[in-house]
Amino acid sequence: MSRPASSKPADPAMAAHVLACVDEARGIYELLFPTQRLQFVLSLGSDPLWARPEVIEGAYVPRPQDLGADYLGTVIRPGSRPDAPEVTVRLAIPRPPLPSELKQSDAPWRPIRRLGALFGASPLAYEGLRHQAEMLRKRREERRQTKVALPLGDGSDLIDRPAAPATQHRPAILIGMHWLEMGGAEKLGFDTVTWALAAGLRVFVVASVPAIQRLADRLPDHPDVAFIRLDRYLPHKLWPRYVAQLALTENIRAVHIHHCTPLYESLPMLRMHLPWLQAIDSTHIVEYANGGYPRISGVWSNFLDLQHVISRDLVDYLQGGFHTPPGQVVLGRMRDRDAGVASLPPLRFQPGQTTLHVSFVGRLYYQKRPVVVVEILRALAGWAQKNGVAFTATMVGDGPFDGTITRLLRRYGLTDTVAQMPGQADIPALLGRSDILLLPSNNEGLALVCYEAVAQGCIPISTRVGSQGELLPEDLLVPLAPRASVKATVAAVDRMWRDADVLARHKAGLQEAWTRLSADPTAEEILMPVYRRIAQGDAA
Amino acid sequence: MSVLNRTAAVIVTFNRSAKLMKVLDALQAQTLRPDIILVVDNASTDDTAALVAARGTEDPSIRHLRLPKNLGGAGGFHAGMKAAYQMGAQYFWISDDDAYPEPGAIAALHDALTGFQTQHGWRPSFACSRVDWIDGTLCEMNCPRPVWDWARFVRADAPWVLVDSCSFVSVMIPRWAITEHGLPIAEYFIWFDDAEYTRRIARSYPGLFVPESVVIHDTPDNRGVNFGLIDAKSLWKFRYGARNEASWRRRQGGLLSVLAYAYGVRGQMKRAGIPGRFRRDIYLALIKGYGFRPEIERVTSE
After folding, report:
1. Torsion A448-A450-A455-A458 (CA) sign
2. Is residue A3 part of a domain?
């Protein structure tokens, strides 16, 4: 029996995907606009991450482009009364991601077109040029940046302040993350979800950056944890209204911001209409270009109740730069109390040893400078050959530099020496059999992987960035300039290999720093009491 | 994988009304009929316009796009796909006016495109049929080119081979491929427009050869495309073919690729003893191709 193609039933898998997306989006907008007449104009999108939402408040006259080739249909949610105002939401339903996008959604890295030949001739020279440009940008930004916290008035007692309404719901917390992908800040975000849940709070999680959110399945599978896909369906300008509405509906008593810009932008709304709500943030790294999230945190200092940081450097940055009250900025290290000094194993590296295994662990993005890692491995391979040391290495991580790294390793004849592993590799096991961990990043806070390395008996060598100096002795910190990074790393390994005293000094330095850091409170120790108080209905 | 399945057939024709009517008959008999049948008429001087108009009164899915002059197959496919895109089609079945699809041909291509993505997650950039000649043997000029790992997803119940190039004889292209990669190059006029286009869209992901979808290509003879087959009658087409492929090779691989191609063409002509005056014409076309740099036209849906 012949039938036109358009009458062919929808593919069941795709139909299920579309309907699930529509339900997710409806959930968000029906909460945001509880009484309005809602009209969803739906089309099939070509983007796997983002629904390109467009929200029009007031009467809407459909345009031809609403009914284009990809038009799916219009869903109406009646208003609470016949004359309810109308809100139209245009959404392009994201398509399911392709297998390649599930693995890596960023395009493979390529050198800048005009400098492609330079990279071909000397990757290190290219990196050097890029480094210089970055430092120039940093100097310019430092001159331009203002470090002033936005003022926040207390209001007058003449005017009544809003009070928290009575509610049947148990207290909840809103945890805003950058995204649910691999990363140190994200690791803390996931930990805070677990801690908040353990403290008795219901937990709502949102992310600001549209992404596959590959780690969403690592959120606790618990009825009190909900991941709301604002990243896909809600424009940033509507976040403050949504957050306020969610807070009122779900008895949210606190927001905890982990590198989530639209939640910072929601703070004026919360301070004006929900002043009882506690605002906490956690920050990690001062970025070169614009100060990054610590600067944003500093600017919003007066709107925040608690600013959690992971290093002393950041305490100084916020208190010195933004005059934040001492009690408001709290240090909480990103480590487990269980991994304390008692369990620190001896560091493995020995003078004159005949084998050397070096590891790199990190996402293959420019921040980690994977090209410099390869150059260091190349130089170390040369050093090992000269000194009769059997050299091997492992690079762990995924990212846009994947292909570049593979090609460089092939070009340098290192494919037999250097193993490449995906990001899901068993990191503790790898560090447990590595002598040296390389971290030549162009920026770090206090890298979690350095803690892990020391805890597994592996010596980290890092660039002198962020707060790395709080854990690593001076001689294990190398300059940031790429060529100098390479030379200094090889020199550091050489010194430890030749000179037992130097090695002993480094080991003692690491041990001492480890002990000192162990005395500091952990993030869990700082945040759990706060969460418990919020769960009991008290202020943070 | 789609919830929208509106499909347009784009058939380019020039002065072959009888064969074209057989193609329209074959489309009527499809188990999955195209929603739109767009006949792109390259300014035919026979009774094509009248016959298509008459068919159109019986079958509202038939549309007649008459071009002001003969733009060749390439210009016809370019104009037809552009028009069908504006008509909102999600799938484009592209074919010649002398290729008769078996009743299940279009449904099989559709099922392969959607089924492959459901099973494996990847989006094939096209799906093409097995093209037989009128005696049931393989049509020599319409054999798709497999990729190196062509057998990766071949299964007994889904024997779809990964290919990166095919002819515009019964090939189905999804809308996203046209959105991302643009339209065929009209300036090619004839020959190699299909190979260039399918190779271009296959950069996103290869296409599928779908053997259960069969069309009969009613050509006068069953010959492949080889520069050893040049004669006075076919020389003009070979000139276009040499120019177009040289142009594409310059774009993709630069001068060395063009020289390698020219060397291969020379070998084919030499082995077949092609007369010097024909060879000279082909060499001139190759040189012309090196400087021939047509733009790729993009589409906009709004």
Report:
1. positive
2. no
